[in-house]
Amino acid sequence: MERHGSIIRVRPSRLEEYKACHARVWPDVLAMIKNCHIKNYSIYYKDGFLFSYFEYTGGDYAADMARMAADPKTQEWWAYVKPMQEPLPTRKDGEWWAEMDEVFHQE
Question: Is 63 inside any structural domain?
């Protein structure tokens, strides 16, 4: 199992809309997340930032993320929420949400 954390800004004028749409995420999107071996997925908010955490339980993260990215319903969802977000200028090439390095974990 791999733990993943990432961060992005949410546009202040779109915060309530972002919260509302995530209160009713489309079922096809939720199914794709599950089918790509992602579980325990949470998004937190603080001071203009969104923090995402999930656990990946599959065997090929890159392939599963490519499959998710190719899914038409997921692409539609991302097109819907993307204007509400503002990526960090320090993100790596190809990232929208900036991946974070884990510095501590205890079970």
Answer: yes
